[in-house]
Amino acid sequence: MAKRDIPELIVEGANLTDFSFLSVLEYDGRRHLVVLDNMIDNMIYAYVLDDAIQKKMNLEVLIPIISKWAEEPREPLSFLFARLGVAEHTSTIFKSFEVTGVTRLIGASYKFNMSPKSKIKRRRIIERQELPSVGVSEIG
Known about the structure:
Oligomer: single chain
Helix content: 25-40%
Radius of gyration: 19 Å
Largest sheet: 5 strands, antiparallel
Structural class: alpha+beta
């Protein structure tokens, strides 16, 4: 039996606390590097970062926004993108996956209860926090 030339394995250390929002989702035999947006009923909604690289999106701008959101996620990431005005650019990497086709999900999973309350008692004004400004041209 002939010896095969096997390349040397290079192991790099990674700080997992910095990128705790990343997940690997295996759907129909293909693995995707994703940031989960929400899980509703039998659907998983996620931003596929593999597609972002192919569409030449600037991940150096996008990743810090996502990591800031992941520190205290109170709502889906898509809501933040809509408020920042970058939803038009990020919608190209937003995908939905049926749970029946997902064989494996490794990493952070976010599930937000998006069902409306049955009764609204009163209206009140809620002040918004100041959001960081993001240049739309930097992402797309």
